[in-house]
Design a protein that fits this description.
The protein is α+β, with helices and mostly antiparallel strands and about 500 residues long. Among the domains are: about 110 residues, no CATH class; about 130 residues; about 100 residues, Immunoglobulins (Immunoglobulin-like, Sandwich), CATH 2.60.40. Helices cover about 35% and strands about 20% of the residues. A four-stranded antiparallel β-sheet has the order 1-4-5-6, with no helix packed on it. Strands 16-17-20-19 form a four-stranded antiparallel β-sheet, with no helix packed on it. A hairpin with a 2-residue loop joins strand 21 and strand 22. Helix 6 runs antiparallel to helix 7. The two termini are about 80 Å apart. It catalyses: S-ubiquitinyl-[E2 ubiquitin-conjugating enzyme]-L-cysteine + [acceptor protein]-L-lysine = [E2 ubiquitin-conjugating enzyme]-L-cysteine + N(6)-ubiquitinyl-[acceptor protein]-L-lysine. One of its GO terms (molecular function) is ubiquitin protein ligase activity. Its EC number is 2.3.2.27. Pfam families: Filamin, zf-B_box, zf-RING_UBOX. Keywords: Coiled coil, Metal-binding, Repeat, Ubl conjugation pathway, Zinc, Zinc-finger.
Amino acid sequence: MSENRKPLSKLPSGTALGNSGKTRCPLCMGLFKAPRLLPCLHTVCTTCLERLEPFSIVDIRGGDSDTSSEGSIFQELKSRSLQPQIGILCPVCDAQVDLPMGGVKALTIDHLAMNDVMLENLRGEGQGLVCDLCSDREVEKRCQTCKANLCHFCCQAHRRQKKTTYHTMVDLKDLKGYSRIGKPILCPTHPAEELRLFCELCDRPVCRDCVVGEHREHPYDFTSNVIHKHGDFVRELLKGTQPHVEALEEALAQINGMNSALQERVEAVPADVRTFSEGYIKAIEEHRDKLLKQLEDIRVQKENSLQLQKAQLEQLLADMRTGVEFTEHLLTSGSDLEILITKGVVVERLKNLNKMEYSARPGVNEKICFSPQEKAGRCHGYEVYGAINTKEVDPAQCVLQGEDLHRAREKQAASFTLLCKDAAGEIMGRGGDNVHVAVIPKDKKDSPVRTTVQDNKDGTYYVSYTPKEPGVYTVWVCVKEQHVQNKRQSKQMSLTAELTA
């Protein structure tokens, strides 16, 4: 369907979607007045439907039309004469309702709803019911023969007429236990005739005048004779529909159950998240405090070492100055005899001072770094990261290991290991150093061999390469832009090594 919809008139504010019972309109919430049954099986007052804003519909389906050439021509002629159809949307379920030529008033009347409205009015002591004849006074009795509700005046007139004298009249209050008190259903084409027959060809109820006019020669029968066949057909359809209702109810129950379970988990999981997060935060904070304590200990240790070295150097400097000043004074101001007398003491002192060993460089360095990616074990069951490192790699202490450092085979992978140490000769125990390796042919220095350096994160580096041609190669290994000394080679080979492939 191709359609040009206009805005739908909305339900009144606060009105819930869905049927509002058997007797009340879902739009106006009042008792049904001339209720119409929509194709979606929702019932709405005629006046309420007329207030809905319609939209135009153009039918371009033609799915069941004849596909022959004659059918195609007919379909083409039909499409040319198509006029936009008027439609509305069901105010309950938003289903599209194609209005018949007569508009809203041509929709099927919901007689069941009318009967329920009448029963509800009866339960209210007849309030709201008016006489079917005069449409003015309140109802007092009902003619069971005519199925008409009558006021006191019309009831008297009904009894005086010869044709209706013997009709059965029942007080309205005596009908409260009835399940059906509906009026006779009259033919919309012949309002004076009751619908008692059923046209099989047109599949709709008709009256006596219809079968001699518009439905002449159509097969028909009394409604009481065909109700079993058509009722059974509807029952079969209902029988096939009910399992779907049960399946949908079960599906909705499962969805509701899943939604409840989901809500329970949504409410429970935050507690787990908070417990985990709080524990993790506590572990991180404790690890942080340990790192800060470690940093403070390092500071104290380094400062104490520097202070001790400083005190020693200051004392040595004072001794040196005393010796120098005294000796200079002796040599410049003393007599020959005084110099000779004092010479033994001065020489001994100066010799001892000159033998004093001391480092001209600070005994500690300022190298303190934080490695956030380094694993630091577990704290309260949580794995934590981050370590403080004070070691600094010393290229002069680093060691190269592996026979492939000196010999390799053509077009075969070769490898060796770089072991990084600090100035004290201790293994670094961590990676992250700036390591550069180059393997260069002696005769083709502009064509170095591709090398790969793998950081093992423990102070060792795995170096691999593949020589392409036989020859002599020079291996350069640099850490912090300084050449590594291979202690197994002579001093002349400390910076380079020759490799025969």
